[in-house]
Amino acid sequence: MQNLSERNKKILYAIVQSYINNPDPVGSRVVTKRYSLGFSPATIRNIMADLEEMGFLIQPHTSAGRVPTDLGYRFYVDSLEDESVHQSNMEVLHDLYRKLEALRNNIDMFLGEATKSMSMLSHYLGVAMSPASDLTTLKKIDLLKYTAGKIAAVLFTDEGLIKNRVITIDADLSQKDLARIAGYLNSEFAGYSLDEIRMKVLRQMSREKVRCDHLLSRAMQICQDALSFPYGDLFVSGLSGVLDLPDFHDLKKIKELSRAIEDKHMIIKLLDELSESEGVQVIIGSENASDEMKRFSVVASACRQGDRPIGVVGIIGPTRMNYARAIYIVENTAKFITQMLEGR
């Protein structure tokens, strides 16, 4: 990033902050009135022109004020790193976390509720991804009759988490059959990671004896279907609230966001890449590798159990995001989940 003088930094910070608070192009008079920087409007206008030339600002219309570019937002976010972000009204965050503790043993329900909480507090999309299968070790599996042609698989892991999956089957198995299948799977696969189990199942399914034993064949197929997630499950909440923001009055931007959400693999891939990172990560607009995400920003953090990443939580919103608040929410949510897991 280009070197900026201290006064240029102050003015750029003020412009970005003003635009985040109010989505109108920012002029020199606005900066003069709202911020006591000690510079004349003429000086501010000259500096704004310099900042535009350097790529931190753009002028959407002739004679209009300026708005930040992705580079301008990046400067702003990097400036926040050295600041202590205090949110006096964030006690509600901890109240919500206390309510979530009742769901601590069911990771799917917990992360689903966590995304709703992050969305409600930030007014952006709340997203979360549960632990990847190579990081999860099976303790036992229960199989229950659900509806005609479907069964519920409940996976208990050594990490103390519960995952549920409804599986479609092509035969009507009794609860006694399901209990026998679950008993076999538990005796064969308890203590292995879900990735290791999938590999063992594929090897066993290729053997002739599986084809000859009807119930064993069913067991292998059910196990394969129960573990059919190469990444963790994705949870997304808050689309209707995001669409109420002034940033989404443009139909094109609404369609872009909708496509990004529908293409879950893209968001999963992004969160999976961030799962190995330390602390809160902020990806702004054009910094996103995916074209569908280049008009949005992502604030995310991995949750850990010891040294292992066991999931990711985050917020997706417009580039005109309240980054300080989003970082605070994501950081504290990730810390809460980590502390909850360590306190088992």
Structural key phrases:
single chain; alpha+beta; Arc Repressor Mutant, subunit A; Enolase-like, domain 1; three-stranded antiparallel beta sheet; 14 helices
What this model shows, in words?
With 344 residues, this protein is α+β, with helices and mostly antiparallel strands. The chain folds into 3 domains: 6-80, Arc Repressor Mutant, subunit A; 91-132 and 233-342, 2-Layer Sandwich (Beta-Lactamase), CATH 3.30.450.40; 134-226, Enolase-like, domain 1 (2-Layer Sandwich), CATH 3.30.390.60. Helices cover 48% and strands 19% of the residues. It has helices at 6-21, 28-34, 41-53, 70-80, 91-100, 107-122, 175-189, 194-205, 208-212, 214-226, 239-242, 251-262, 264-274, 323-342, and strands spanning 57-58, 67-68, 125-129, 138-147, 150-157, 162-168, 234-237, 280-284, 296-305, 308-318. The strands form 3 sheets. Strands 7-3-10-9-8 form a 5-stranded antiparallel sheet, with helices on both faces. Helix 2 (28-34) crosses helix 3 (41-53), helix 7 (175-189) packs across helix 10 (214-226) and helix 8 (194-205) packs antiparallel against helix 10. The longest helix has 20 residues, at 323-342. The two termini are 44 Å apart. The mean pLDDT is 82.
